[in-house]
Amino acid sequence: MMRKKIVAGNWKMNMNFDEGIKLIENIISKINMKASLVDKKDTGVILAPPFIILQKASELCFDNQMISIGSQNCSQHEKGAFTGEISAAMIKSTGANYVIIGHSERRKYFHENNETLSEKVKLVLENNLFPIFCCGEILSERKSGRHFEVVKKQLEETIFKFNKNDFQKIVLAYEPVWAIGTGVTASPEQAQEMHNFIRELIKNNFNKDIAEQTTILYGGSCNAKNASTLFANPDVDGGLIGGASLKADDFVDIIYSF
Ligand code: 13P
What we know:
Blueprint: E1 5-10, H1 17-35, E2 43-48, H2 54-60, E3 67-71, H3 88-93, E4 98-101, H4 104-109, H5 114-126, E5 130-135, H6 139-143, H7 147-156, H8 164-167, E6 171-174, H9 188-205, H10 208-213, E7 216-219, H11 227-231, E8 238-241, H12 248-255
Parallel strand pairs: 1-2, 1-8, 2-3, 3-4, 4-5, 5-6, 6-7, 7-8
Helix pairs in contact: 1-12
This protein binds 1,3-dihydroxyacetonephosphate.
1,3-dihydroxyacetonephosphate binds at residues 10, 103, 175, 180-181, 219-222, 240-244.
């Protein structure tokens, strides 16, 4: 079985309700236009808008074969007195299917550590949602040649602790922090090298079949111009797109970059 290719849009804290609905409607109509020309059944699209749009987004995409909806975060707690938090069960109840966990912005600005992230992944899986788990080094770590070691530790302390059955539900995203929102993309060689390294780790930690079937996305200044050279690498199975996912034309071009 070939692993799935995915293009996911992480909208971050952008788009109010009406803007978000318009963007989704635009993306759907552009995909429908292209779909009549090019068959892309092997590519999945995930839209991760802010929480307030999840339910309406799920409704709009309900009968679309290609598009699924995801949230950008969830609480590490199941339920209760955690003012302002959103649980995995609540996300599930909107019709969404995916949850981004461990984005570097969550790690940096909200101090989420590997322990918290493991709790979140556990709840996501318990609620029959699929985690999109992010990893990636900061610039100083790459400059000092520690990027492999850093990513290895991020994975070993979190998703590698889950059993095979659970691990197979996880989508990985390698997002070098120095490439996020900076306009500096990892070179296709840098992306391939790290993705291959991650796949080897999965093989050693689980087995070859699981490694071959795990989808590993690249994220960090991926856009309509550079997506095809990044996606052309054998271990790059798609992208987690920030800025360029907010423009329907660019995002749909990225989906059709394989
Ligand atoms: P940019 O595409 O804006 O660099 O963001 C990438 C990202 O963080 C996706 O999660």
